[in-house]
Amino acid sequence: MAEEIPRAVAGPVVEEGSVRKGINAPYFAPGGYEKFARVLEAESREVAAHRDQIVEAIGLRQGMVVADIGAGTGLFTTEIARRVGNQGAVFAVDIVPAFLDRVRERVEAEELSNVTVVLGGERATGLKDASVDLAFMCNTYHHLEYPRTYMDSLFRTLRPGATLVLIDLERIEGKTSDAMFQHVRADKQTVIVEVRRAGFVLESETDLLEENYYLRFVRP
Ligand SMILES: C[S@@+](CC[C@H](N)C(=O)[O-])C[C@H]1O[C@@H](n2cnc3c(N)ncnc32)[C@H](O)[C@@H]1O
After folding, report:
1. Distance 21 CA to ligand 1 centre (A)
2. Whose CA is nearest to atom 18 of ligand 1?
3. According to the model, what pLDDT value does residue 12 have?
4. Ligand 1 centroid distance, CA of 38 (Å)
5. Ligand 1 site: residues with CB under 6 angstroms?
6. Does a structural domain hold residue 83?
7. Does 160 map to a domain?
8. Most-buried pick from 101, 118, 170, 198 (CB within 10 A)?
9. Nearest-CA neighbor of 195 among 163, 144, 146, 152?
10. pTM passes above 0.90
11. In whole numbers, what is the pLDDT of the chain averaged over residues?
12. Cα–Cα distance, 71 to 131 (Å, whole number)
Protein backbone atom coordinates (compact mmCIF):
# COMPACT_ATOMS: atom_id res chain seq x y z
CA MET A 1 0.00 0.00 0.00
CA ALA A 2 2.59 2.56 1.10
CA GLU A 3 6.25 2.81 0.24
CA GLU A 4 8.55 0.71 2.43
CA ILE A 5 10.98 2.42 4.81
CA PRO A 6 14.31 0.53 4.93
CA ARG A 7 15.12 -0.58 8.47
CA ALA A 8 18.55 1.02 8.21
CA VAL A 9 16.93 4.48 8.10
CA ALA A 10 15.71 4.03 11.65
CA GLY A 11 19.23 3.60 12.96
CA PRO A 12 20.15 1.72 16.10
CA VAL A 13 17.77 1.87 19.04
CA VAL A 14 19.55 3.17 22.11
CA GLU A 15 17.71 3.54 25.42
CA GLU A 16 14.40 4.89 24.19
CA GLY A 17 12.80 7.23 26.74
CA SER A 18 9.11 7.00 27.65
CA VAL A 19 6.93 8.72 25.05
CA ARG A 20 3.97 8.84 27.43
CA LYS A 21 5.06 8.60 31.04
CA GLY A 22 2.34 7.23 33.31
CA ILE A 23 -0.10 6.30 30.51
CA ASN A 24 -0.70 2.93 32.22
CA ALA A 25 -0.50 4.18 35.83
CA PRO A 26 -4.33 4.43 36.23
CA TYR A 27 -4.60 0.66 35.66
CA PHE A 28 -2.37 0.03 38.70
CA ALA A 29 -4.02 2.64 40.98
CA PRO A 30 -6.39 1.47 43.76
CA GLY A 31 -9.76 0.68 42.16
CA GLY A 32 -8.18 1.04 38.72
CA TYR A 33 -8.79 -2.51 37.64
CA GLU A 34 -12.53 -2.42 38.49
CA LYS A 35 -13.04 0.95 36.82
CA PHE A 36 -11.20 0.11 33.61
CA ALA A 37 -12.55 -3.42 33.33
CA ARG A 38 -16.03 -1.86 33.13
CA VAL A 39 -14.87 0.74 30.58
CA LEU A 40 -13.17 -1.84 28.36
CA GLU A 41 -16.19 -4.14 28.26
CA ALA A 42 -18.88 -1.44 27.89
CA GLU A 43 -21.03 -1.83 24.78
CA SER A 44 -20.71 1.93 24.28
CA ARG A 45 -17.07 1.29 23.36
CA GLU A 46 -16.92 0.95 19.57
CA VAL A 47 -14.58 -2.04 19.51
CA ALA A 48 -16.65 -3.89 22.14
CA ALA A 49 -19.86 -3.32 20.17
CA HIS A 50 -18.12 -4.59 16.99
CA ARG A 51 -16.21 -7.43 18.65
CA ASP A 52 -17.54 -10.18 16.38
CA GLN A 53 -16.97 -8.28 13.12
CA ILE A 54 -13.46 -7.32 14.27
CA VAL A 55 -12.54 -10.94 15.00
CA GLU A 56 -14.18 -12.15 11.78
CA ALA A 57 -12.10 -9.66 9.74
CA ILE A 58 -8.81 -10.93 11.21
CA GLY A 59 -9.01 -14.00 8.96
CA LEU A 60 -8.04 -16.53 11.62
CA ARG A 61 -7.48 -20.16 10.71
CA GLN A 62 -7.44 -23.32 12.80
CA GLY A 63 -3.95 -24.08 14.08
CA MET A 64 -2.65 -20.49 14.12
CA VAL A 65 -0.55 -19.18 17.00
CA VAL A 66 -1.81 -15.73 17.97
CA ALA A 67 -0.51 -13.13 20.43
CA ASP A 68 -3.22 -10.83 21.83
CA ILE A 69 -0.91 -7.96 22.76
CA GLY A 70 -2.37 -5.84 25.55
CA ALA A 71 -5.19 -8.33 26.01
CA GLY A 72 -6.79 -6.28 28.80
CA THR A 73 -9.72 -8.22 30.25
CA GLY A 74 -9.65 -10.66 27.34
CA LEU A 75 -12.47 -9.10 25.35
CA PHE A 76 -11.02 -10.61 22.16
CA THR A 77 -8.88 -13.42 23.58
CA THR A 78 -11.48 -16.12 23.99
CA GLU A 79 -13.15 -15.61 20.63
CA ILE A 80 -9.74 -15.72 18.95
CA ALA A 81 -8.95 -18.90 20.90
CA ARG A 82 -12.14 -20.58 19.72
CA ARG A 83 -11.34 -19.79 16.10
CA VAL A 84 -7.77 -21.12 16.14
CA GLY A 85 -8.96 -24.30 17.88
CA ASN A 86 -7.04 -26.85 19.89
CA GLN A 87 -4.35 -27.23 17.23
CA GLY A 88 -3.69 -23.50 17.65
CA ALA A 89 -2.75 -21.33 20.60
CA VAL A 90 -3.25 -17.84 21.99
CA PHE A 91 -0.83 -15.90 24.16
CA ALA A 92 -2.74 -13.24 26.11
CA VAL A 93 -0.05 -10.67 26.90
CA ASP A 94 -0.46 -7.74 29.26
CA ILE A 95 1.50 -5.80 31.87
CA VAL A 96 -1.34 -5.55 34.42
CA PRO A 97 -1.65 -8.70 36.56
CA ALA A 98 -5.28 -7.95 37.53
CA PHE A 99 -6.29 -7.92 33.85
CA LEU A 100 -4.55 -11.24 33.33
CA ASP A 101 -6.47 -12.72 36.30
CA ARG A 102 -9.68 -11.72 34.53
CA VAL A 103 -8.45 -13.39 31.32
CA ARG A 104 -7.78 -16.58 33.31
CA GLU A 105 -11.32 -16.46 34.76
CA ARG A 106 -12.84 -16.11 31.29
CA VAL A 107 -10.70 -18.90 29.88
CA GLU A 108 -11.77 -21.24 32.69
CA ALA A 109 -15.43 -20.24 32.44
CA GLU A 110 -15.36 -20.88 28.68
CA GLU A 111 -13.42 -24.15 29.16
CA LEU A 112 -10.66 -23.21 26.73
CA SER A 113 -7.38 -25.09 26.89
CA ASN A 114 -5.36 -23.23 24.25
CA VAL A 115 -4.75 -19.88 26.00
CA THR A 116 -1.54 -19.00 27.86
CA VAL A 117 -1.53 -15.85 29.96
CA VAL A 118 1.75 -13.93 29.78
CA LEU A 119 2.90 -11.07 31.99
CA GLY A 120 4.86 -9.08 29.43
CA GLY A 121 7.19 -6.13 29.83
CA GLU A 122 6.90 -2.44 29.03
CA ARG A 123 9.63 -2.87 26.41
CA ALA A 124 9.28 -6.48 25.27
CA THR A 125 6.57 -9.06 24.61
CA GLY A 126 8.16 -11.75 26.77
CA LEU A 127 7.49 -14.29 24.00
CA LYS A 128 10.05 -16.40 22.15
CA ASP A 129 11.47 -15.14 18.88
CA ALA A 130 9.69 -16.33 15.71
CA SER A 131 6.97 -18.08 17.72
CA VAL A 132 3.78 -16.34 16.54
CA ASP A 133 1.76 -16.34 13.28
CA LEU A 134 -0.38 -13.31 14.05
CA ALA A 135 -0.26 -10.47 16.57
CA PHE A 136 -3.48 -8.68 17.43
CA MET A 137 -3.29 -5.25 19.08
CA CYS A 138 -6.53 -3.47 19.87
CA ASN A 139 -6.22 -0.03 21.47
CA THR A 140 -2.84 -1.08 22.86
CA TYR A 141 -0.47 0.87 20.62
CA HIS A 142 -1.33 4.22 22.20
CA HIS A 143 -0.62 2.66 25.62
CA LEU A 144 2.96 1.69 24.72
CA GLU A 145 5.40 3.82 26.67
CA TYR A 146 8.33 2.59 24.58
CA PRO A 147 6.77 1.96 21.15
CA ARG A 148 10.00 1.79 19.21
CA THR A 149 11.64 -0.75 21.50
CA TYR A 150 8.40 -2.69 21.90
CA MET A 151 7.72 -2.94 18.17
CA ASP A 152 11.28 -4.18 17.61
CA SER A 153 10.54 -6.91 20.15
CA LEU A 154 7.21 -7.69 18.49
CA PHE A 155 8.93 -7.89 15.10
CA ARG A 156 11.28 -10.53 16.50
CA THR A 157 8.38 -12.40 18.14
CA LEU A 158 6.61 -12.85 14.80
CA ARG A 159 7.60 -15.51 12.29
CA PRO A 160 8.63 -14.30 8.83
CA GLY A 161 5.43 -13.84 6.82
CA ALA A 162 3.34 -13.34 9.97
CA THR A 163 0.61 -10.72 10.29
CA LEU A 164 0.11 -7.80 12.65
CA VAL A 165 -3.46 -6.53 13.01
CA LEU A 166 -3.41 -3.12 14.67
CA ILE A 167 -6.59 -1.32 15.68
CA ASP A 168 -6.37 2.02 17.38
CA LEU A 169 -8.30 5.18 18.05
CA GLU A 170 -8.40 7.89 15.42
CA ARG A 171 -6.87 11.22 16.46
CA ILE A 172 -8.33 13.84 14.17
CA GLU A 173 -8.39 17.50 15.14
CA GLY A 174 -11.94 18.86 15.21
CA LYS A 175 -13.44 15.35 15.06
CA THR A 176 -11.91 13.45 17.97
CA SER A 177 -13.21 14.53 21.39
CA ASP A 178 -10.85 16.73 23.40
CA ALA A 179 -10.42 14.02 26.03
CA MET A 180 -9.41 11.40 23.46
CA PHE A 181 -7.24 13.88 21.56
CA GLN A 182 -5.28 14.40 24.77
CA HIS A 183 -5.22 10.70 25.66
CA VAL A 184 -4.11 9.32 22.28
CA ARG A 185 -0.52 10.26 21.49
CA ALA A 186 -0.31 9.82 17.72
CA ASP A 187 -2.58 9.87 14.69
CA LYS A 188 -2.90 7.02 12.19
CA GLN A 189 -0.23 8.30 9.77
CA THR A 190 2.29 8.70 12.59
CA VAL A 191 1.54 5.20 13.84
CA ILE A 192 2.01 3.78 10.33
CA VAL A 193 5.41 5.48 10.04
CA GLU A 194 6.46 4.18 13.47
CA VAL A 195 5.35 0.60 12.79
CA ARG A 196 7.00 0.53 9.36
CA ARG A 197 10.18 1.77 10.97
CA ALA A 198 10.26 -1.45 13.00
CA GLY A 199 10.30 -3.36 9.70
CA PHE A 200 6.61 -4.14 9.20
CA VAL A 201 5.04 -3.61 5.76
CA LEU A 202 1.57 -2.11 5.57
CA GLU A 203 -0.65 -4.47 3.61
CA SER A 204 -4.21 -3.18 3.88
CA GLU A 205 -6.77 -1.22 5.84
CA THR A 206 -10.21 -2.55 6.77
CA ASP A 207 -13.01 -0.02 6.66
CA LEU A 208 -15.12 -1.32 9.51
CA LEU A 209 -15.05 1.23 12.31
CA GLU A 210 -15.52 5.00 12.65
CA GLU A 211 -13.68 5.97 15.83
CA ASN A 212 -10.91 3.45 15.19
CA TYR A 213 -8.75 2.46 12.22
CA TYR A 214 -7.99 -1.20 11.43
CA LEU A 215 -4.61 -1.87 9.82
CA ARG A 216 -2.94 -5.07 8.67
CA PHE A 217 0.84 -5.29 8.41
CA VAL A 218 3.13 -8.13 7.34
CA ARG A 219 6.40 -9.03 9.02
CA PRO A 220 8.57 -9.80 5.95
C1 LIG B 1 -7.11 0.28 26.20
S2 LIG B 1 -6.55 -1.25 26.82
C3 LIG B 1 -7.06 -2.39 25.53
C4 LIG B 1 -7.31 -3.78 26.04
C5 LIG B 1 -7.85 -4.78 25.00
N6 LIG B 1 -6.94 -4.94 23.88
C7 LIG B 1 -9.19 -4.34 24.51
O8 LIG B 1 -9.27 -3.78 23.40
O9 LIG B 1 -10.18 -4.51 25.26
C10 LIG B 1 -4.78 -1.17 26.61
C11 LIG B 1 -4.10 -2.39 27.19
O12 LIG B 1 -2.71 -2.35 26.85
C13 LIG B 1 -1.97 -2.86 27.94
N14 LIG B 1 -0.57 -2.48 27.77
C15 LIG B 1 0.02 -1.27 27.90
N16 LIG B 1 1.34 -1.35 27.67
C17 LIG B 1 1.59 -2.64 27.37
C18 LIG B 1 2.77 -3.37 27.03
N19 LIG B 1 3.97 -2.79 26.95
N20 LIG B 1 2.66 -4.70 26.79
C21 LIG B 1 1.46 -5.32 26.87
N22 LIG B 1 0.31 -4.69 27.19
C23 LIG B 1 0.38 -3.37 27.44
C24 LIG B 1 -2.69 -2.24 29.14
O25 LIG B 1 -2.37 -2.85 30.34
C26 LIG B 1 -4.16 -2.46 28.72
O27 LIG B 1 -4.63 -3.71 29.11
Report:
1. 15
2. 122
3. 53
4. 14
5. 24, 27, 40, 47, 69-72, 75, 93-96, 99, 120, 122, 138-140, 143-144, 150
6. yes
7. yes
8. 198
9. 152
10. yes
11. 93
12. 18
| CA-closest residue to ligand 1 atom 4 | 72
Per residue of the chain (220 residues), what is the pLDDT tens digit?
Answer: 444 444 444 555 467 899 888 899 999 999 888 999 999 999 999 999 999 999 999 999 999 999 999 999 999 999 999 999 999 999 999 999 999 999 999 999 999 999 999 999 999 999 999 999 999 999 999 999 999 999 999 999 999 999 999 999 999 999 999 999 999 999 999 999 999 999 999 999 999 999 999 999 999 9
Q: Which domain holds residue 134?
A: 39-218
Contact 2, 202 (CB under 8 A): yes
55 contacts: CB under 8 Å, gap ≥ 6 = 76, 79, 80, 83
Q: Which residue type is seen at 121? A: G
Rounded distance between C-alpha atoms, residue 152 and residue 206, angstroms = 24
Give 48-58 pLDDT, tens digit per residue.
999 999 999 99
Which residue owns the Cα nearest ligand 1 atom 22? 70
Question: In the chain, how many domains are there?
Answer: 1
* Domain presence at residue 4: no
- Pocket probe for ligand 1: among 95, 123, 157, the residue whose CB has the most ligand atoms within 8 Å is 95
Ligand 1 atom closest to the Cα of residue 27 is 25
Residue 155, domain CATH:
3.40.50.150
User: Which region holds residue 72: left if phi is over 0, alpha if psi is between -120 and 50, else beta?
Assistant: left
